[in-house]
Structures are given as C-alpha cells and as structure tokens.
Write a structure and sequence with these properties.
The protein has about 290 residues and is α/β, with parallel strands linked by helices. The chain contains 11 helices and 8 strands. A hairpin with a 4-residue loop joins strand 7 and strand 8.
C-alpha cells in the first residue's frame, strides 16, 4: 500500500530537517521540488530541463547536454537519502527513493513488524474486561457522537478555508530572437491569444494584454513588474523557429518572490491558436494544482 499525500509531506519534512540535509541547500531544494511535484501527480514533468530551470535557476537557453548540474546533484541527493535511511530514518514508516535513471521519486510504506505482533496478541480475559451500566454506556455513546459531529464540522471549516482564492496572472510580451518584423508580430499575436484563452477558460483573473504590453522592452525585477500590474503570477515566453514550426518555451513565476515554479518547452506547432490553447490549459492546471497544495 502506498503512503498518503499527507504522510509523504510529513516524511519530506523529516528528511529536510535531518542532519543529512541541514547544510545542503541544493539537495534540499531538489528533494522538495521532485517530491511535491510527484505527490501532486506531476511526476511526468520531472525532466532534466525542467529541474535545471526551476530548481537550479538556469535560464530558458539551458542545455542539459552541455550543463550536467542536474545529473551531478541527483547523484548527491541519492547519497543523502541513503545516508538518512541508514541512520536516523532507519525505522521511519514512509520511504522516499530516487531511482537511478530518472528524477521522479518513489514512495513506499515500510512493513511494520510491530503491527503484526499487535494483531497476534490474544484477546483480554473476561476478568479484565470493564462492563458499563446502560446509563453510563449511553453517556459514552453521546460523548462519542458529539465528538464525531464536532470533528466533521471542523473538517468542513478547514476545507472551506483551504479553497483557493482567484489568482491574478499577467502574460508578459513573448520574446523572439529574430528582429524580423513578421516574427515580432507573430510573438505579439501569440501573447494576445494566450491572454485571451486564459480569459476564456475563466479560472484565473487575467491582466489585460494592453497593460502588460508596457513591459515589452524593459522589465527589470519581476517582483516590481508584478507589483505594478497587481499580479500574483507572471507568464513569460520565448519563441524559437524550428523549420515550419514554432517551439514555445513558457514559464510562470510567483511575482512577489520572483521565483519560477513552472517551465515547459514542449509546445511545438505552426497554428498559433492551437499553441495558445495548449499553453493556457497547461498553465491554468499547474496554477490551480499549486493553489490546492497550500
């Protein structure tokens, strides 16, 4: 049986607070990112390029074939995980592994001998049983019922409080390396269509493209851009021509802290409308999943 998401999160916190990770900021960021992504059902996103950009702050031109930082840090991370489970975590119920050859972690529950021993215990003898009178039994039942009702009410309250609030996103003008006017127009059109598609989906508050256009040339710090546009999230994009097709490298940053949390360069095609739909849907799903985790 696999551990629950809450159990995985608690185990992640145990690892990060252990001696193996105390002074290892890179390994800690790496572990937290891959575990949280996998626990959220986003394990298929855990590719070398995405980790390099989102965890190790490589730019959109990062080439894993040239820069081996992710492979090197993955080896170190596996060593630290093994170190933890061979010492302080040797009796932990939840096991987190990072298999070689990939970056998606695996989660498992350790088989508990104590559980088996408890199940083999003989039932107590009648002489040790405590019998309650009918009035006392009714009182106990009433207390239990009230406790269950109160717990259910608390759970509903927490659920309501945990519902994500509307996130405000701004799509900044997409860049294209070419200075050709036609290519610049294409980048502008794709920016506008992604913005329009986000509005059509309706799950996010979207800053008007005319407002975001002021940051086409000079952006400065993303946190300043986010503040000016009153945006929680900022989307950026870069267009690369590949023959008759266009590859779009899109990323989203949390504006207030200027931290990238989503990067995807899998958008390839020649139809701008289709590209815009795919980018908008993927971005919306990612943001909503991130909000649900909070």
């Amino acid at each position: 049986m696999a551990p629950t998401r809450d159990e995985i999160q608690l185990q992640l916190e145990r690892l990060l607070s252990s001696n193996a990770f105390t002074n290892a900021s890179r390994s800690s960021r790496f572990l937290q990112f891959v575990v949280e992504q996998a626990a959220a059902g986003e394990g298929d996103r855990l590719k070398e390029y995405v980790i390099g950009v989102e965890v190790f702050d490589r730019d959109a031109e990062y080439d894993p074939r040239v820069d081996s930082i992710v492979r090197v840090e993955a080896g170190r991370l596996r060593t630290k995980i093994e170190e933890y489970y061979s010492s302080h975590g040797c009796e932990d119920a939840v096991i987190i592994r990072l298999p070689k050859g990939g970056y998606a972690p695996e989660f498992a529950l350790r088989e508990s001998e104590q559980l088996g021993a408890a199940q083999r215990q003989t039932p107590p003898s009648k002489s040790s049983e405590i019998w309650l009178s009918k009035p006392a039994a009714l009182s106990v039942a009433l207390v239990v019922l009230l406790a269950v009702v109160f717990a259910a009410w608390q759970a509903d309250l927490r659920t309501e409080q945990a519902l994500p609030t509307a996130v405000r996103i701004a799509v900044l003008p997409f860049h294209v390396a070419s200075v050709d006017e036609a290519d610049q127009i294409m980048a502008t059109r794709l920016t506008e269509r992604v913005t329009a598609e986000l509005v059509r989906i309706g799950s996010l508050d979207v800053v008007a493209s005319t407002s975001a256009l002021q940051f086409k040339e000079d952006r400065g710090l993303l946190r300043d851009v986010a503040k000016a546009l009153r945006a929680d999230m900022l989307m950026e994009g870069r267009l690369i021509e590949e023959g008759d097709n266009i590859r779009v490298q899109a990323r989203i940053s949390a504006g207030a802290v200027d931290q990238k949390f989503w990067v995807d360069d899998s958008f390839v095609g020649s139809d701008l409308d289709e590209l815009a739909k795919r980018i908008a849907v993927s971005a919306t799903n990612t943001i909503l999943a991130r909000q649900r985790q909070r």
